[in-house]
Amino acid sequence: MCQEERSGSIAASFLQVLIQMIPFDKAIFADSLKHAVILAGIGFLVIQLIWGEIIIDDLIGMFFAIPLIAYMIHIIRLFK
Known about the structure:
elongated, mainly alpha
């Protein structure tokens, strides 16, 4: 086994350990995702009311924001 293969397997095993250490509960995340989608709907409504239109930037932003907000809600619910 050459040096590159060993360092690659070490990095892969390190990544697996890191992923296992991340707090995650699938059921709580699914419920949190529902809440995040509701918040996104409210966000779209506010954007529509204030600016009068929804542009592609809003859609792209929400595409990335919804899972992040869902995970934040998930973390808060895990540690309550």
